[in-house]
User: Fold these one by one.
Assistant:
Number 1:
Amino acid sequence: MRSSCLTGLALLGVSFAAQAHFGIVVPSADAVADRSGKTVTVDVAFAHPMERTGMTMEKPEAFSVTAGGKTTDLLPRLTPDTFYGKPSWKTAFEVRRPGVYRFVLTPKPYWEPAEDKFIIHYTQTVLPAYGDEDGWDEPLGLRTEIVPLTRPFGNWAGNSFSGRVLANGKPVPHAEVEVEYLNRDGDRTPASDYHVTQVVRADENGIFVYTAPWAGWWGFAALTEADFKIRHDGADKDVELGAVFWTYFAK
Ligand SMILES: [Cu+2]
């Protein structure tokens, strides 16, 4: 029932948020403090984070890191990997100087037959290094993105995370935001299907708040429908856009 996007629930016409998929960009450390220089591994994947099932991710369209106003293309540095048993990508990134490193993924459109649409999750995460904490609150100018209102690092479990959902640079009133825990080691068992994905709605200014109940990486996915279609088997298909943001809460 839970192993893919295709579920009996979908066939019954029941709209269940429990099979939420997320673009994933998660580094091996939530901050870099070591002065001697440190290499982090960044995982790039497409998966159901809480249920621990993967989806195949083709080589992304773009993957970069922005810090101090400078953007570095990391696409050539991605190497194949697996995530929850499905093809994914990763890169080793050496953090040489202080900065707030913003990793941004643009995947290729993912065709989802169960939903008769394409999915594109623009996914980002922020890695602070060597004490720098500037620039985390600036929009990156993505087609759609979550701009954090809470500093997206140095937070405790139990803190609230707030962000603003933008599409084409403008707030998205009442945007639906899906929230999931990255259950990497399987240490959490959802109390019911309803607990797999948490759902919050943004206010009229596109602002949402969610309080993380326990430590770890949490993903926030604000979903909107694209104002364009993509051709598939001779027909124009809808495109779901996700603005996905990953942030860590410490114990
Ligand atoms: Cu899925």
Number 2:
Amino acid sequence: MKPSLTDTLCTRCGLCCDGSLFADVELAGRAEATRLEAMGLEIEDEDTNCALLTQPCRALRRARCGVYAHRPECCRTFECRLLQDVRRGAAGVEQAGAIIAEARKRIGRVRELMARLGQHDGRLPLGEICAEALARDPDPLPQVNRKRAELETAMSAVEESIRRTFLDGAGRSHAPRAAGRPG
Ligand code: SF4
Ligand code: SF4
């Protein structure tokens, strides 16, 4: 059987689950949140009607969903811009694979810069860790400030490329898809 597009691409990606694209995702309701909490996932209650699945998602195993058969509705229905482009023939599968690899490389570089600045809390979304690294007061050491400037530039480029490649036209700003990931 031919592998699905999500099997082929999403299993190499995981950016909509690991905190790179989203800080959290909106769940369908309290019942779904309770079910996910029972599986060990981290949920935040926004108000009585809205629960959020925080990212990076605890169910993510490398680029695969560890609760694939039980993933929430938002993950079942989300398709990023890139996946939509491939489906409608605007991009090829190999081309999309290369785009994902390049995005992961750029994000890896941002993470490396943050780690060098002593900022590497893997439990936070990418944007939040980066904002913390950049919010510090200027350092007496010029090389540290240079590293921060490098981080700021690299993160701006990542944000722009994420918006253009994965989010624009994806329909939702707030719901990821973990894709074809047989546990
Ligand atoms: S839906 Fe898009 S961002 Fe999410 S894993 Fe698949 S290719 Fe990556
Ligand atoms: S598909 Fe949903 S539940 Fe699975 S790892 Fe991604 S965000 Fe988590």
